[in-house]
Structures are given as C-alpha cells and as structure tokens.
Design brief:
This protein is an alpha+beta fold. Helix content is 42%, strand content 12%.
C-alpha cells in the first residue's frame, strides 16, 4: 500500500475534505478488522497507523501501542517512528517524542524529512528551556540543503534569532534579524512583521549602545525607545492582527509617559491575544500612574486570575497596597511574588519583605486588627470583585476553543514574558520605613512566538515514501569472512545513495536503556559493599584479586598501599605545591550540605525541596591558590566550631537539617545536626565551598615521580599496560588513560555518573580525610535514566544527585560505604556512582579497560547509545578497535568475534563510501592521501559529533578546517564542490589488518599446575549514619 501522507502536516477538518475523511475512517475500520483476523500484522499495522496520522481527530496513541504489541519490527522503521514522535508531541509527551525522533536519525541518517526531525527536536528543546540543544537542531535543519522541511529558510533563521534572545546573545539576534530584513523581496509579509517586532523589542529592552557617556544616557535611552516604536509600527503595518506587537508598542509608549497611546495599544492587545497576563499588568501600571488605584487593583487581579504565578503582577499589586498604607496585604502579595523564584530574581524585593516583617512584628497583635480600613479592599475581597467584561468574554472564548481544539501543538513558550514596571511609590505611612527608592523591576526576555508547522501543505513529490529500513545482515557475517569476500558482497549491493551509518552491535538492535529488573524474592536495597583486605604483596598481584574485582559492580580494596609500599605522599597538597604551584586546576563552587540531601537553594519556596538537579559553577585557579583555600577553610571551620560550640541550634521554624562539622585530628569532620532557619536571611548563611577537580597529571616531565609510583600497582590497575584497552588508543584522553587529581574540602561532591563509554575506573583516596560513596550496579542504569528524565536532568550530560528514597521506591539497591585514606575503589564497567568528601582530602583516578568481552561489549553498546542521543563518545571505539587488531592477539572467542565484527562493519562502510564517491562523482572528487601522524587524535564530525574514521570530509568553518562525516558533508554541500576528501589508511592496509586478525589459540600444556592464593574478602555493610 502506498499513500502520500505528510505525517501530521495536513488536516482534514475543512469542509472540502469531508469525503476523504469518511474514506479514511472506512479504511481504518477495514485494517482493524484485518489485524484481528490475520497473522501478517506488520504491513497492516503500518497501513493503519499511517492512515491515522493523516488527521489528529481520528489519530490515537493506542494504534501505536497495538502495533508494538504485535511483536513486529516497527522499532526499526524510521517512517513509523517519525509518526510516533509526532503523536507523542501532539499529546505533550516530550521525552518519548525526543526518543522517537532520535531513533529516526539513528536508523536512517538520510531520512527524507530529516530537516523536519531537527526542526521538531529544536521546538521541543526550546519548550524545555534547553536553548543550546535547541539552537543546534535549528542550525542543522537550516544547514540541510538535501531534505524537505516544513519551514522556509527565513523562518528557520527567525527561530534561531529567537533562541539567541533567550540565551542573552542580543547582538547575534539583532544581526540575524537585520540580515533577514535585507531579503525584503522574498520575505513573507507576516514573517517580516515578526522580525520587525522582535527587532523593536530588542531596541526597547536591550542595553544602551553608547553608555560610556553618563550625561547623555537618558537621551540615548529615549532615542532607543523611539527607534523601537518605529520598528514596531512597521511591524503593525505588516501584520495588524498580531497582538504581541501592540503589547510591545504599548510598553514603549508607557516608557515615554505617553499614557493615552499606551492605553489605546493595550486595548488593541486584549482583542487580539487570547489570554495575556502581561497586558493586564501593564494596564494596571498605567492606571496607577494616573492615580486610579481601584482600576489598577482590578487590572492586577485580572492578570493574576489569568496566571496565578505571575510574579510581576503580585509584586505590582503589593506595591499598590503598600503605597495605600495596607502593609499586611502588601506583604502577602510580595511573598506570593517570590514563590518558586531564584533568590537573585529581585534582591530588593526580598529586603523589602524582611523590612515589612520586622516592622509588623513590633506591632501588638490586638493593635493590627484595630487599624482603620485602607482605601482598597483587602486581598481576599479583591478577588471577589466582578471581572471586566473584556476578560470575561475572552475566558469564554478560550474555554470554547480548548474544548474543540485538536491541532498539533508544536511548541510552547518557555521564557518569561516582559514584565510591567513601576516608578518608586510615594512614601508610605509613618509607621513603616520607606520602601526601596529604586524601582522594583527587571528586564526579562520576550515570549516565544511559535510558528505552527502542522498546517503546511506540501506537494505530493515531497511526501514520505517507504525508502530503507536499517536491518543489518548480521546472520551473513562470520569471522571467517575475508576482505575479498566482503568486497564481492559490496559490488553486488552498490547503490546511488550514500551509505547509511552501520551498527556495531552484533545483533543490530537499536540501543535502549535496560528495563527494571523483576525481583523474584525480597530485594536487599542496602546491600553489603564488596571489600578485599590485602595482607601480602602476593595477594595484591594475584589473578584472584582481578577476578574478584571484575565480578562485582564496585569493590573497595584495603591495604593495597601498605603491601605495595606506595608513597601516596607524592600526591599530597604539600608536595603538589612544592613541585608545580602554578599548575591549573578547575574549581566547582557549590553549597555545603548533608550527604543525603540536595536542596534547591535557587528556589524561594520554604521549606527547601530535595531535588535531583545538582548546581555548581565553574572557575579556574592554580594549585598553590587552591591549597591556600584548603588551609584557610580548615582554620575557618575550626574557628566556627569553637565559636558555636555552646550553640545547640539555630532557628527551628522549618525542621530542615543541615550539617555543621566538628574537626577531627585526621582531617575528617564529625557531623552534628543543627536546625536551619527558614527566613530568607539565613539562606546566605549556608556555606559555599569550592571543590578542586580535573588536575591533569598526564605530563611525564612534570609528574615523573608520581606516575612512576603508580607503576607499582597490579597490572590490571595500572594507567598503562598491554592488557589495558585504553593504552592502545594512541593519544591522551584526559582523565581516562591519564591520571587526574581532585583536591577537596568537606562537602565536595562528584555528582552521579557512569564512566565514559562504561569503562572501568580506579580511585585512590590520598587523605587525610574520608570520602563517602554511593553506587548502583550497571543493570539498573535504565531505571536511573528514567528517574533523571522524570526529574528534568539529562542522564548523560546533566549534573544530578539522586534522592535515595526515589531509588528505594524504584527497587534499586544502593551500595554505600566510606573510603578511607589509602583505600582503592575499583568501579566496574557501567557502575553508576556519586560521592562526597567527609573531610579534607585529595583523590586520584583514571580509567582502565580490561581485555574481556563484557567490557568491550559495554563500551560499544554505549558508543551506539551516544550516537543515538547525539552525544560525543570520548573513546573512539572504531579507531581503538583497529589499533587492537594491529597490536594484540586475542584468545577469547567471544571477544574475538565482537572485535572482528566491528572491523567487518567498519571496512564495509569505508568501501561503500569510496564506491559511492566513485559512482556519483567520478573524477569530480579527488580522494587525497594524508597519513596519520604520531599521537594524532581521532576525528569527530563537527556537526553530529560522530566518530569519523579514515575517510575525512574537510570543510572550512570560521576560517578553520573542520571534519565532517559523509552525511553532514552532503547536507553542507550536495555536490562536494567546497569539500576536500582525505583518507588516512589505504584500503589494502586495512584489508591486511582485517585478514591477519585471527583467533589466537593457546598451546596445550601436558601438566597443569594450580596455585591458590588466599584472599581475605569481606563485606562492608552500607552505612546509614556516618
């Protein structure tokens, strides 16, 4: 069945489409009947879902659920997944929609509506407030010249300009808008109006261009507003129906004290916009300027009834009450304004709240009730007053429209709309101190005006057609397949289309997070931590130690530094300062808090809530300066403890607990529980600490003594060894195949994460203080991924600190233990962990890659998952695999088969790429030779962050040469006229490596000698109180 559909981009709700709509309903009934009576469910399910996609009023998510329940291969069908993403997006399921769209690009990088996928991803991320990712997808949609998009290039550029505004890149936004206006001949009138509108608003709220002359700053500001009015008036001429333009124009008139013009434009807004609290808030400001306090009150109430969390409306209402001498009502409104707001949102308002609270606390309770009634009704009475006729009519219209509206929601506004502002209010009654003399205002960003893409009708030649489904011929691969056999297969499968990226997973499945394990018996959610206590050097170097470490999710090894006589003092702060005082160090500033708490201090909501999102800010300093901070923090905390030793608690209003630290002689802080006050002034009293991270110790000339000391470790723990996969990368990957050091004060955190590409890791505590660890086995990473998604943080790239109760509720066992000085923690492949220092200490860490099947499979599976999520893999697995094939003989058959398969897929892709270039371009594209240099890093595509091996497509970007993959190069330049193609290995060289890589069979010994080494293995119970 072949039907020309555009997957949600057309609607059948017009009068002339009634017959077609009825036909589709009959067809759906036919397919539903067939589904119940036939076993050939794949094509029928596809036909049913495609038909349902043509109109949302008959579209149902249950159709997709039914299709999946039929156990078909629909999860390998890009067209099906594209439609599924649209339906998810229609129902507001943003995260499932993102996953569906990502799978489309993973399965078919040349998908016919690839630009639409990037456009929709950009809209979703914009709605979620992730503007950097949104910008990336909008730019990829704009730069794609080979696929169909629902929006024109100027419309995409307009969206990019809007994202620039949200990021605060006002100059880039202004330049882009001005450049678009130069295309006035081809620019649609309405789009031109939108661009002029945003440009005018930029002039209004943007910074003054020439602010170096303070005498003329008011004149410059006035001229800037006049230019904004000119732009906005031009926008009104282009699109007289746009209410937002009239709102911006009213704000400009109000700023120039042209109240009559401002009222006129605001009234126009009310008729054109659905419901906008900003308009009524601005009208209230104008009424207050005219001393019409009752009208101002009613306007502010209207704004709040439209948006109960409109902070500016609550603040302006509070100012109105305060100027009228009604302090209690003002305080109530001010507190409403700061709910769910960052403490930096309006510091003056917070100070005003504290002042009002102090003044009201001095008045006897009986006297407050006997004060004369103010000129305005009290807050609770104000909201019972009749709503203006204009607002009532609008609310009825919205209610009617929402009951019948079923169109596809593309994206909503995620940014704050411009807020109304007031001049300083007149002096309040003598009872209270004067309110702030500066204006309680802020300049916020404009609302996002969404371009709807669900009503675009495109021609039939742009419709989706069933093209290719990426199902790898896995069964045809055998490890005995030679390079010549592979070349013969490729000759028979030549195609005029570019090759699709290959999957390096042996079964070719689309990588997905693992499902939660079903516990057959009662699960211990607080399991014992695997632990090894070493007493002799022989135990430390035994194979049993390696086997035990690799059999556990995480393992703590004690006594290793003693039996191997490791001089950990080489990594102490004193030694580091003496050897390299000016060496750079990254610093993370964070709030100090209890180890099982992660409060959201950015919120003004009291009491603070435990959240997953972890907040820290980045800066840089030197080892010497951070060492000085470490010493000062120690002395400061000792002084604080001595001063507070007789204080049992602070205010006990909220019941929240935090940790004060009593210093012990070994550098560890002993916890004592205090009560945290909930008033706003106590927030700033919470200690901010600085944690030193990512000190690079890779330079052998600077850190020869330290790196030499680590060669005493067992082979499987060493930074460099023949059995360590990461030693064969060929260049330094900071923190992975090189040592990194961390310098800490009490409370320093390493948030939750898995290691890059799920490699194993080593961490040694130098001391003198302890660290407390939390860890979860690899098989539960899918559950944590879901919890991260639920809590609004990105599992791969975000910063998060899990809430233990959430993990326990999800039946996730958590290891918890203390790492003391000298203890080594071995983190197995894929283990999720997070830790916090209890005292002052340094740690060193690096990654290792055991040459075993489980490690290699975990690494390549994460490599594919990263590609699906458009996340860069720090370890170039294809490049590494070719180096492994050159350098190592493998005697483990499963590992050999996996490596051979990756080589097979890589060689196939290279040959298909060269064949495509030869067929399509012939001599028009010259593939030039450029051999790799020593220690040359692997290459990644500048656009999609995928690894690019051997065949490099070089383009120029900002006067620099950058690498692209074949797909992104063709999107950039379809004819490859401005692209230089290079190869770094000859095809013959790669074929030789592929053919010579064979399973190495160990010689058989006549006698077998078994040596048993006794290890003292214990288990450490997880710690509930430290």
């Amino acid at each position: 069945m072949c039907i020309s559909l555009l997957y949600g981009l057309i609607h059948l709700d017009k009068q002339e489409e009634i017959q077609r709509r009825q036909f589709l309903q009959m067809a759906i009934q036919f397919y539903e009947e067939k589904i119940r009576n036939t076993k050939d469910s794949l094509e029928i399910a596809q036909g049913r879902t495609k038909l349902m996609l043509s109109c949302y009023k008959i579209c149902s998510l249950s159709a997709y659920q039914t299709a999946y329940a039929l156990e078909t291969k629909l999860n390998q069908n890009p067209e099906f997944l594209f439609g599924l993403g649209i339906v998810y997006h229609h129902y507001g399921l943003d995260n499932p929609a993102i996953r569906a769209y990502q799978q489309v690009l993973y399965l078919d990088s040349q998908f016919v509506r690839r630009s639409d996928v990037h456009l929709r991803l950009g809209l979703i991320y914009k709605q979620l407030g992730d503007y950097s990712t949104s910008l990336k997808h909008f730019q990829r949609a704009l730069g794609d010249s080979t696929s169909t998009c629902s929006l024109t290039r100027p419309e995409l550029s307009y969206l990019i300009g809007f994202v620039y505004e949200q990021q605060g890149h006002l100059t880039e936004a202004e330049n882009l808008y001005e450049k678009l206006l130069q295309q006035h001949d081809t620019l649609p009138t309405k789009l031109k109006g939108k661009i002029l509108r945003q440009l005018g608003w930029l002039y209004f709220y943007g910074p003054i261009a020439n602010n170096f002359n303070t005498e003329n700053i008011s004149i410059e500001r006035e001229n800037q507003i006049k230019e904004a009015i000119r732009k906005l008036e031009q926008a009104c001429e282009c699109d007289p129906t746009c209410g937002i333009t009239y709102y911006y124009l009213g704000r400009c008139y109000a700023a120039l004290r042209k109240h009559t013009e401002a009222f006129y434009t605001y009234r126009n807004c009310v008729d054109k916009l659905d419901q906008n609290a900003d308009i009524w808030c601005s009208i209230g400001v104008l009424y207050q300027h005219q001393n019409q306090t009752m009208d101002a009150l009613q306007a502010f109430v209207c704004a709040i009834q439209i948006d109960n969390k409109h902070a500016t409306a609550w603040m302006d209402l509070g100012i109105l009450y305060e100027t009228s001498g009604q302090a209690q009502d003002a305080l109530f409104c001010y507190k409403k304004a700061i709910l769910d707001k960052d403490e930096s949102w309006n510091p003056e308002l917070i100070n005003r709240i504290n002042q009002l609270q102090s003044c009201l606390a001095q008045i006897p309770e009986g006297a407050i009730g006997k004060q004369p009634r103010g000129p305005l009704p009290k807050v609770e009475e104000a909201f019972t007053l009749p709503i203006p006729v204009e607002l009532t009519a609008k609310q009825q219209q919205i209610a009617t429209a929402s009951s019948t509206n079923t169109s596809l929601p593309t994206s909503g506004s995620n940014s704050e709309t411009p807020s109304a502002s007031l001049p300083p209010p007149p002096p309040p009654p003598p009872l209270l101190p004067p309110p702030p003399t500066s204006t309680l205002t802020f300049n916020s960003k404009p609302p996002i005006d969404v371009i709807r893409i669900d009503k675009r009708l495109l021609t039939s030649d742009q419709s989706l057609k069933s093209k290719r489904i990426k199902i790898e011929p896995i069964l045809s691969f055998t490890s005995t397949t030679s390079s010549n056999d592979l070349q013969k297969i490729i000759k028979h499968s030549s195609s005029p289309l570019p090759p699709l990226p290959v999957s390096y997973l042996p079964d070719g499945h689309v990588p997905t997070p693992p499902q939660a394990l079903k516990a057959t018996t009662s699960l211990d959610l607080n399991p014992s931590t695997p632990s090894v206590i070493l007493e002799t050097r022989r135990e430390a170097t035994s194979t049993q130690l390696q086997q035990y470490c690799l059999s556990q999710p995480i393992c703590i090894v004690r006594g290793l530094s003693n039996v191997l006589k490791l001089d950990l003092g080489l990594f102490s702060t004193k030694t580091l300062v003496e050897s390299q005082p000016d060496h750079p160090i990254e610093v993370r500033s964070q709030r100090q808090q209890a180890i099982d708490e992660n409060f959201d201090f950015t919120s003004m909501t009291i009491p603070f809530k435990n959240v997953w999102k972890y907040q820290s800010t980045r800066s840089y300093t030197t080892i010497a300066k951070y060492a000085q901070y470490q010493a000062y923090s120690y002395h400061d905390m000792v002084k604080d403890e001595l001063n507070d030793i007789n204080i049992s608690s602070l205010n006990t209003n909220s019941g929240l607990t935090t940790n004060s630290n009593m210093i012990m002689t070994n550098g560890t802080s002993k916890k004592i529980t205090n009560k945290l006050s909930t008033n706003n002034s106590s927030i700033s009293a919470i200690r901010t600490i600085k944690s030193g991270t990512n000190v690079d110790l890779s330079d052998e000339r600077k850190w020869a003594a330290q790196l030499s000391e680590l060669t005493k470790l067992p082979l499987f723990m060493r930074v460099v060894s023949a059995g360590n996969l990461l030693s064969h990368v060929g260049y330094t990957i900071l923190g992975m195949n090189s040592v990194q050091l961390y310098m800490k004060v009490p409370g320093s955190r390493a948030p939750g994460h898995q290691e890059n590409n799920c490699f194993c890791a080593i961490n040694i505590n130098i001391g003198p203080g302890d660290c407390e660890w939390f860890a979860v086995a690899n098989e539960y990473w899918g559950v944590i991924y879901t919890l991260c998604e639920k809590n609004g943080v990105d599992f791969l790239t975000g910063s998060w600190w899990p809430i233990l109760d959430d993990l326990y509720d999800a039946q996730v066992p958590v290891y918890r233990f203390v790492q003391k000085p000298g203890d080594l923690v071995f983190i197995n492949s894929g283990c999720i962990y997070w830790l916090q220092s209890i005292g002052w200490c340094n740690n060193i860490s690096w990654n290792v890659g055991p040459l075993i099947y489980s490690q290699y499979y975990a690494a390549i599976e994460r490599y594919e998952w990263n590609r699906l999520c458009t996340c860069k893999s720090i370890v170039p697995m294809v490049h590494l695999t070719w180096n492994i094939a050159r350098n190592i003989r493998i005697n483990d058959r499963p590992l050999f088969e996996l490596i051979k398969f990756i080589l097979h897929q890589s060689l196939k892709y290279i040959q298909l790429t060269l064949s495509y270039l030869e067929q399509q371009f012939g001599r028009g594209v010259d593939v030039r030779k450029q051999l790799r240099t020593l220690h040359e890093p692997a290459h990644y595509c500048i656009t999609c962050d995928c690894e690019v091996f051997n065949i490099l497509f070089i383009t120029e970007l900002d006067r620099k040469h950058v690498v692209r993959c074949v797909d992104c190069a063709l999107q950039y330049d379809k004819q490859l006229e401005n692209v230089v193609v290079l190869y770094q290995y000859t095809l013959e060289d790669l074929k030789t490596v592929y053919d010579q890589f064979q399973l190495y069979l160990l010689p058989t010994l006549n006698t077998t000698t078994t040596t048993t080494t006794g290890l003292t293995t214990t288990t450490t119970r997880s710690i509930t109180n430290t």
